[in-house]
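User: Continuing from earlier, I have the next pair ready.

Assistant: Great, send them over.

User: Here they are, in order.

Assistant: Folding the first of the pair now:
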Amino acid sequence: MTSSSADLRAALTGIDGPDRPRSRFRTLMWPVAGWLVFALVATAGAALHLESDVEARVAQAVPGVEVAVDGRDVTVLGAVSAGATDDIGSITGVRSVTDVPVASPPPVVSPPPVERPVTTTLAVDPAVPHLVADLRDGVLTLRGSISEDALAAIRPVAELIYAPDLVVEVETDIDPAPWEALMGSLISVLPITGDAELVVLDGEVRLVGTALDERRRAQLIGAAASILGDAMSLEADVAVTGLRAPSFGAVASPDGTIVLEGEVPDAEIAATIVAFAADAYGAENVTDSIGVSSDVARTFSPFRIPYIFHSLRAIPEWNITIDDDAISGNLRGGATFGVASARLTPELESLLDIAAGILLRNPGVGAIIEGHTDSRGRADDNLGLSEDRALAAARYLEARGVAPQRLTAVGYGETSPIADNSTAEGRAENRRIEFVLAPVQQ
């Protein structure tokens, strides 16, 4: 036999030489090992059958008792009577019975729920001046009796902050009350917290609501007290929830795409935000990275986010961030000034209305208003013109109800172009205002 044939034989038979007893031992090992494997499988099957049989007998003899069976040994899970243990021990096939009491899990103690404000129903003569302002899940409902002039003054503020989620159920066939002039400012502070309700009657104001923490609670009560001054008394009942503030970020690019991120209280709010963004920008242009957590509070801001997309769609480039319930961001482009003019065009006024709405809905936010020019003319003249443009925008915002101390007007002249000044189109883009939104420094 050649070495190659010997190698082949060794590979096939396990015989690697003339040592035949050794080869015979190896050959015999295969049937022994095969039987052993079969025996182990058969034994396991028999044991499983025995355990199943014992479990069935225990269930029949002592219904409702939970047991674990290991071969013929039975462990009772949970406390049972001595008689039940004896009954199990007398079952054929049971060798031993062990009773293991299972400790009950400690009760889960949930923090007491924070009650949301209950809508007040006032049994008041319609001839008596009164007002109820109820903010719930982003919707403001006004009820009561105030003068027609008062409603005319309140409505623009309410619409700017709350529309289209504004319900007005107010009677106006009544003489003016001294406190009516304060109501526009008063209802504008409600978004500081979550749900809230104001009741104004007989020279008194009752404020009920929820706040994330003591700081926001103090901010809401302090803002209301500052508006009322000595004119009316204030009774405040604002509960602290201890929940986290929602967060949100949106970045819109000149190519028409928008990226969304953040964390909101529930999936319905998240889906609504994404749906409104998709409606404004197209679903294929929206990147959604919004998370959901039940530890996040239902503050005012998540309910307003859906409305920003159509409002800001005309602005080519913008970004907004809501962090710790404070808003910041930038608005750029989409409306321009005439040549050498600081007069606000209708397009610029629309942009300013958007900015005013953001500022009025967020009392803790201020704005730096930047004025810019193209490169035509002298640099000093352009600097003065840019300052005039910023001041014109600031005056417009003040007329819309934004406090002047929250606004800073700055002129940059021709130093910060965003387009090519060698073309008419580029110069028009550079004749602009921009907004930088940020929390007001206390």
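And the other member of the pair:
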Amino acid sequence: MFPGMLNRSQVRRLAAAMIVFIFLFITLMVTIPATTIPHYYGDTGAWCWITDTSVEASRLKIGSEYAYFWLAAAVSLVLYGIIVVNWLREATAKRDRRRHREALSMVWYPIAFTAEVFPISLVRLLQFNRKGPRPRHGFVVLAAIIIASSGAVNVLLWLLTGRRFGFSDSPEGDEEEDRRRDSYTMPMISPAERGLHPPAATAGGGLPISHPSFPEDPPTTQRLYVPEPYVWMPPRTPPPP
């Protein structure tokens, strides 16, 4: 969720804490109403599992499901928005168009989730309000189809945008990997292997290639030698006998 902010051990602890919290939360949400309100759960048809039709039960219907839809949508918009803004700033500073496209692609995830939960939430609010207008049957069916298609929408988003986030191979990822690989695996070829030799040292300047360390250097250190300009010389051959 926050790239670069947590190390590996912190991510594992956070994931374990979230799993424990989810199981504990579901257990409490199911057991507390069932033990305090008689005939709270039952078969209600196509929608909810709460059989009570009182005003308090309607509030519990919203608070036990749809309020968390809205909370998740709001948190997703805020967190993804923060990440996208930071990525856009980095992409603009570095003139990285690939990073810019990735940031814009991430916006679709919270937008898709909000679009999935909004119709069904609106239908339920209208159904809970006995004095207000009732939603038409076609709109109810459409809202049910949208929320039931959330898995297909997630797969479609992954195919269209997720491939840029490193989950699978892509041409852009290959180019980036090639740039990183070329930056540190370039073979080092000595000038002698290419037929280049430094000019002979003279009294007027130039240092021989085998010059020892300077006196002020510690005995165990070696000064980096910056050679004079190299000139091409043919390989030396031994004199004839």
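Worth noting for the second one:
The radius of gyration is 34 Å. DSSP finds seven helices and two strands in the chain.
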